[in-house]
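Long-time lurker, first post. I've been practising inverse folding by hand and with some scripts of my own, and I keep getting stuck on stretches where the structure tokens seem ambiguous. Below is the full token string for one chain I'm working on. Before anyone asks, I'm not after the true native sequence, just a reasonable design that respects the backbone. If someone could post their per-position residues I'd love to compare against what I wrote down in my notebook.
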């Protein structure tokens, strides 16, 4: 199946997951070679996924084979200090040099050369260099605007550890090198998957998220993200399972700030509402308090769900905050603006949510058209 060859796949990713030697893997593998269950499914739906950044196609020359091709670079970030030095025709150390605007940019898009499958070894065509200069002017004009709508922006792209990389494939190599030494690190697999998502590669992200969960089935960020991807791919039954598991395991997850976790679970619930298209089914199918207990564990205050007066506004995601806070357990005590305790009914202290939640609808949920399954 050559459907995904135009995007390119790193053989090292397949090698690390399968344990196969690189000599056993094609130099330019197609989606049919992706390990796991979901990568190949998602690859078929690649053109249907929403874009994080506008299409930003430019011509690049691969220095490995000296051929030129057009690629979607995603958002291009321009380092203002480096650009200023470039305009002064000096390198950062003050010596006279012949730098290029290439030295000033980073790009979010993930792509590999179509012919040789190389990545990261690029030079700009003359037209692209001019386009980048115009892009830098546009970035100055629209500075502080919504970055998600811009093709060029000023700033630098850094990973959590502070490292900076020019291309998305450089980020991939960085994480693959770490995983080569620690292949059982589920969190690093999650970080790699997130970099694929930002690069527009939902297929590779699904593979890495699945590997993260193979190592740690309670990796909440991977559960949530894989659930979202599967929903967008039309695999709603599997999506519901992963999103529910994210809710169930959130209270024991320690790698997120409470506010970020609440937002993530709120997004998960919005996704579930889109799938169910019915409030009653949505509420009745949510995980119960007993679903969140480990074997031999007894209910404690962290999982003492309360009956509450709850108003859900379809156009206000924050109206789901009290519901999300029920699932973050002890982490809700760290919230500065927690809505959980404000919503508990003073009239009813029966801790049996969600069976006895009283939900007031302030509007009908907008229905989302279901994607038609392609006949195989």
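-- Answer (accepted) --
I ran through it position by position. Result:
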């Amino acid at each position: 199946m050559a459907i995904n060859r135009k995007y390119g796949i790193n053989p090292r990713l397949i090698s690390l997951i399968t344990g196969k030697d690189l000599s056993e893997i094609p130099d330019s593998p197609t989606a049919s070679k992706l390990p796991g269950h979901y990568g190949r499914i998602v690859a078929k739906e690649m053109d249907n996924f929403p874009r994080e950044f506008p299409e930003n196609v430019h011509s690049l020359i691969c220095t490995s084979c000296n051929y030129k091709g057009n690629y979607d670079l995603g958002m291009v970030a321009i380092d203002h200090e480096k650009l200023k030095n470039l305009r002064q025709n000096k390198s950062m150390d003050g010596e006279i040099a012949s730098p290029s605007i290439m030295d000033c940019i980073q790009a979010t898009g993930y792509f590999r050369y179509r012919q040789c499958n190389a990545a990261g070894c690029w030079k700009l065509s003359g037209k692209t260099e001019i386009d980048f200069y115009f892009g830098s002017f546009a970035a100055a004009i629209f500075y502080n605007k919504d970055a998600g709508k811009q093709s060029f922006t000023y700033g630098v792209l850094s990973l959590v550890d502070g490292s900076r990389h020019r291309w998305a494939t450089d980020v991939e190599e960085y994480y693959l090198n770490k995983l080569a030494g620690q292949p059982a690190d589920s969190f690093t697999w999650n970080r790699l998957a997130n970099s694929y998502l930002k690069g527009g590669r939902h297929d590779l992200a699904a593979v890495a998220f699945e590997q993260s969960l193979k190592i740690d089935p309670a990796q909440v960020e991977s559960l949530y993200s894989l659930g979202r991807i599967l929903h967008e791919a039309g695999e709603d039954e599997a999506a519901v399972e992963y999103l529910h598991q994210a809710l169930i395991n959130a209270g024991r997850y320690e790698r997120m700030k409470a506010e970020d976790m609440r937002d993530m679970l709120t997004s998960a619930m919005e996704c579930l509402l889109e799938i169910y298209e019915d409030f009653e089914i949505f509420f009745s199918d949510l995980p119960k308090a007993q679903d969140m207990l480990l074997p031999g564990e007894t209910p404690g205050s962290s999982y003492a769900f309360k009956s509450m007066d709850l108003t859900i506004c379809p156009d206000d995601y924050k109206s789901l905050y009290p519901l999300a806070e029920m699932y973050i357990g002890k982490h809700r005590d760290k919230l500065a603006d927690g809505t959980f305790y404000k919503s508990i009914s003073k009239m009813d202290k029966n801790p049996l949510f969600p069976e006895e939640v009283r939900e007031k609808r302030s509007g009908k949920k907008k229905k989302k058209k279901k994607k038609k399954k392609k006949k195989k």
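A couple of notes from the structure itself: The two ends are 13 Å apart (CA to CA). The chain has a mean pLDDT of 85. Happy to go over any region you disagree with.
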